[in-house]
Amino acid sequence: MLENRSLSIGDLARRTGLSVSAIRFYEERGLVEPYRTSGGQRRFLRSDIRRLSFVLIAQQMGLSIGEIEQQLKKLPHGRTPTQADWTKISRAMQKMLDIRIMKLSKMRDRLDGCIGCGCLSLKKCKLYNPDDRAASLGAGPQLLIDD
Fold this sequence. Notes:
The structure is a single chain. By secondary structure, the chain is mostly helical. The protein has helices spanning about 10-15, 20-30, 45-60, 65-70, 85-115, and strands spanning about 5-10, 35, 40-45. Strands 1-3-2 form a three-stranded antiparallel sheet. The longest helix has about 30 residues, at about 85-115. The chain is elongated. The model has no long low-confidence stretch (mean pLDDT about 85).
């Protein structure tokens, strides 16, 4: 009965637009978990279409594979996720995206002061760091970035 509702890796590739090798990569990362038939064939649940579609959307939003893995770990194993399951993930992602949007907006607003200022004066440049004074603040352009 499960066999009738399952998909081969080729079928899953056609349904998601992903290559077979990409699906195997996501399988290695634990984002989808196929089972094997008695003949050793890899089979996927239809709900894996949603899981992989989520991966594609999350990547387009700029989430890393690690962040995507963390979200997908919240989904139940052994049953198709419900709308409530997906809603929990959606809310968590909204918070992540709000933080990202805030950081990107701050970076955008500071670009002219950093790259486009044309000051030709190191005295007011945010990247200027005489005697490496900002080293104690951490790695990277610490005078420009503040979390």
